[in-house]
Amino acid sequence: MLISILVPTFRRPHHLAEALDSLAQQDRSLIGEIIVGDDSPAQFHSDNRAAIAASGVAALVRHVINDPPLSNYPNQCALGRAARFDHILILHDDDQLCPGGLAKLAEACADETDDSVRIWFGRSEIMDEHSRVDPVRTAAVNKEFGKDGPGEVRSVREWSLEHAIPPDGFLIARSTYLAHMLGARDGNVGDWGLSVRLANSGAHGRFIAEDVARYRVHTESLTNLGRGVDAHIMFELTQQLKVSAPEHIEGRDRLLREFVEVATTRYLRDGERSTAWQCFLSPYWHWKRRFSPRGIATLGMLLTPAFCWNWALGNRGGRIFRS
């Protein structure tokens, strides 16, 4: 098996160097290519080239500079289209693979006997901006996402309801990824959209009860630097998740209740006023929460005339509200 490893990067040469160093510690016989999709401004290109040259895997790297930049998730999708091998693994530039992680995923895929399995993933260690792994936080996250038990196969629907499938560090067939990577509206939560579309296709996923990747929690993440997580689009995508069993319906409704409050204000911020009202009046906003301080503040924002928002947020240019 040869794997295309896809590394989208954006103005973080220091983290890119660490991500590539983690790839240098993998079984080289499994790596068909490493494609670095560079969305960085021009002043970062030389440092990114230097990080690649010093990585120990430079001979395997294709450095693709996006001009103009594509933005994070479209960059990742472009890498999927450019991949040359039958299986791909996405590694964000601020994350890492654990030593031997690629081999564990590849072995599970090669030994797979269940034709319904379309994605292979394991546990992720949580590290800080200085690449220090936090074992306490790691254990808590694995428990929260239902990954503190033995390895098993479950439907992607079930894994999605626990947010168990990570945004990167998983192994998937290129054909499967291309078929499900893009939806009509993914924003910066395309990884969640991928899980929802895989779930709706009836796919299953195999969880490997071992550490295969390291996920970095830090202030330089793209969502922290930009518009934040598109919670309103996560809300929409979750509504699209097809469920029928009572426990799955409850699981989906739990996620919708989790997203709905932030989604309402995001719709407002992005000028989707009527959708914000629909969100606020949906059954996922519990009536008690509507009378909470946050609920009252949200109602106040909904009742604020559009021209006031346009004046206050005039730096965005033009009218921000549409009906």
TrEMBL record:
The source's domain of life comes to Bacteria
Q: What is this protein called?
A: Glycosyltransferase
What species is this protein from?
A: Variovorax rhizosphaerae
Which SUPFAM superfamilies would you find in this protein's record? Nucleotide-diphospho-sugar transferases
The record's annotation in InterPro entries points to: Glyco_trans_2-like (IPR001173), Nucleotide-diphossugar_trans (IPR029044)
Where do the Glycosyltransferase 2-like domain residues begin and end?
4-117
Output the Gene3D superfamilies linked to this UniProt entry: Spore Coat Polysaccharide Biosynthesis Protein SpsA, Chain A
